[in-house]
Write a structure and sequence with these properties.
There is one protein chain. A 7-stranded mixed beta sheet has the order 3-2-1-4-5-7-6, sandwiched between helices. The protein is 44% helix and 22% strand. It has a domain at 7-141: Rossmann fold. Helix 1 runs antiparallel to helix 3 (53-63) and helix 5 (102-115) packs parallel to helix 6 (133-146). It contains 7 helices and 7 strands, in the order H-H-E-H-E-H-E-H-E-H-E-H-E-E. The longest helix is centred in the first third of the chain and has 14 residues, at 26-39. The structure holds S-adenosylmethionine (SAM). S-adenosylmethionine binds at residues 21-24, 46-50, 53-54, 73-75, 77, 81, 101-102, 128-130, 135.
């Protein structure tokens, strides 16, 4: 699935369990992998781990510059989430899964992580958890507030061409018009996302 990007990434992803939910497509994964290698974030957060596909892409890209931690948040409604997290954790010590609804877990956990180390900055975050307006909006607002100036916020599934997510579209439009500094991408495999850079 991801062998066009990296052989080791592909082998890791093949170990992940099957999941009923969608996950990052090959074209998106290629973009994400290159983006992480280019910007070299130290701390990355994603909401929506599912079975771990996007997490593997991020962690494998981090190998190229030797660094950083990934914190993934998921409500873990599927067995595949905990199983996938065990597989990823066995390969990457720098990975953590925080289980629960992000509306309850995200702000407190991240405030604790960032305040326990003065040098720690949130450099990049992906919102791909709950796709309803309330959850997507809360995830975007919380992560924006914690992001370092110049850091990047990715809203997944924004204006997907053939799989419409109304909640994500509403939040993305709202965010882009109030904040600016947003770019919309549509990949060749018809997945949309929005990328925001926090003012610097
Ligand atoms: C589209 S999947 C994530 C796909 C993953 N980023 C990937 O590309 O491999 C969305 C995930 O968000 C989780 N989720 C849904 N609502 C949530 C919430 N309120 N808090 C945390 N996680 C949530 C679901 O359980 C699911 O695992």
């Amino acid at each position: 699935m991801f062998s066009h990007i990296d052989k080791e990434l592909n082998e890791l992803v093949q170990q992940l369990p099957e999941t009923p939910e969608g996950y990052i497509t090959p074209h998106q994964a290629e973009f994400l992998y290159s983006f992480v290698r280019l910007t070299q974030p130290k701390i990355v957060v994603e909401t929506g781990f599912n079975a771990g596909h996007s997490a593997c892409v991020i962690l494998r890209a981090m190998d190229a510059y030797g660094g950083g931690a990934l914190l993934s948040f998921d409500i873990a409604r599927y067995d595949a989430t905990r199983k996938g997290a065990e597989i990823v954790k066995a390969r990457y010590e720098s990975f953590s899964l925080i289980v629960g609804d992000t509306k309850q877990t995200l702000a407190g956990t991240m405030a604790q992580v960032l305040s326990s180390n003065n040098d720690a900055t949130l450099d990049f975050a992906i919102v791909d958890g709950g796709h309803d307006v309330e959850t997507a909006r809360a995830d975007m607002v919380i992560l924006e507030s914690l992001l370092r100036p110049g850091g990047y916020l990715w809203l997944d599934d924004f204006e997907n061409a053939n799989c419409i997510n109304v909640g994500v579209n509403v939040v993305g439009r709202e965010f882009a018009s109030s904040r600016g500094h947003c770019l919309r991408f549509l990949t060749a495999d018809n997945r949309g996302m929005m990328l925001h850079q926090k003012a610097f």
